[in-house]
Amino acid sequence: MQQSRPMKSWILAAGGLVAGLAAVILIGLALRPHTFAGTLIQSAQPAFDFLLMGPENRAVRLSDLEGQVVLLFFGYTSCPDVCPTTMNEMGKMLELLGKDAARTQVLFVSVDSEVDTPQRLQGYLSVYDERIMGLTGSAEDILYTATQYGIFYEKRPYGDEGAYLIDHTATVLLVDEEGYLKVVYPYGTPAKGIAADVS
Fold this sequence. Notes:
35% of the residues lie in helices and 26% in strands.
């Protein structure tokens, strides 16, 4: 039995309505601003342009990396928990980025400059990802740089024979391609979320 013309018109109208709603939803998703995995800095300021020592005792300035997204972390190689956990996530993040990792640089600034030589940093970081760059410098330069980024650290002796821990801020800082401090990630932010912000 043939459908009546009003029924066909209703079906066409309903189909058009569904297609229209789908288009509105897709446009809404495309226009919705990205939700960052960390805290977005609303009034971004130029990041402090430090000068520290990198691999093979090479001088490294933050401004040398302009055009890349920089993820900056302050820690030390003897750290028992926070630093290895964070570097593990940074390594995963670089893997998730795939080819986009070429425009991303992770920097690990040591807050234990007396122990963490460029060679020691390179060996430590290569366990997580060889693309992560370790930086060090004089105690004064490290303290000044950390202070500019709101990073706190303090050596705390424990036990015998000069053993110590260093309490330190555990955030990761994102500096965008133009050199602006843009996002602060709390400790424990998953690699997947950071990768989504970078890509």
